[in-house]
Amino acid sequence: MYRLIRNIHLALGTFFCLFVLLYGVSSIPFAHSGWIPSEPAVTKGTIPVDPVRAADPRAVARQIMRRAEYRGMLRDVRRTPEGFRFRIVRFGAAHEVAYRPGAAEAQVTTRTMNWMGTLIRMHVIAGVRQGSWVYDAWGWLVVLTSAALLLLGVTGVYLWYKTLAERRVGLVLISAGILFSLTLLAWIRVA
């Protein structure tokens, strides 16, 4: 049993280490926003649209995605007094499109994120039904990583307990970790 638990612990730690590190690095700007700049680069322009085939936002989005070679998901579609607006979103960029029915072009504002902005976007993506297989796959990977972290903790405590020589040191470290975590949680609530 010990060997099986050890192998599970090792496999989980090895495979999910990269994703845990990714979350650790991408959480830094939430606490220290001035340390690493993550402001997107903004560009504005127009893209030609065939008004005959622009009956609804999806038709306009298809044309724009084909002509400008944009990739991503259609989001935040809304009617405006002039026509409609929507966004084409992916991890590293967001294209905000404004279109007036009958016009031969659409106004596009593109926000391209640097590497930290992309990590932040990946950090805050939630759910497994986003409408894009990439976002859905990322959501499932987040679910698996969360479950793996819980299982990693349980197997780690089991392995520690089975090693008789390290029980005292382990108990001190576990107690210190729990005390530190509870202190941080209390401090975050008060501050």
Would you write up a description of this structure?
Helix 1 (2-31) packs across helix 3 (115-124) and helix 1 crosses helix 4. This protein is elongated. With 191 residues, it is an alpha+beta fold. The protein is built from 5 helices and 5 strands; from the N terminus they run H-E-H-E-E-E-E-H-H-H. The chain has 2 domains: 2-33 and 120-190, no CATH class; 41-112, no CATH class.
Determine the strand fraction and express it as a percent band. Answer: 15-25%
The outline comes out as elongated
Number of strands: 5
- Measured distance between first and last alpha carbons: 45 Å
Largest sheet: 5 strands, antiparallel
**Overall pLDDT, averaged?**
83
Structural class: alpha+beta
Q: For the CA atoms, what is the radius of gyration?
A: 24 Å
Strand numbers in spatial order across the main sheet? 1-5-4-3-2
Give the SSE map.
Layout: H1 2-31, E1 41-48, H2 57-68, E2 73-79, E3 84-90, E4 93-99, E5 105-112, H3 115-124, H4 133-162, H5 167-190
Helix pairs in contact: 1-3, 1-4
Please summarize what this structure is.
The chain has helices at 2-31, 57-68, 115-124, 133-162, 167-190, and strands spanning 41-48, 73-79, 84-90, 93-99, 105-112. It is an alpha+beta fold and 191 residues long.
Descriptive key words:
2 domains, elongated, 19% strand, alpha+beta, single chain, five-stranded antiparallel beta sheet, 191 residues
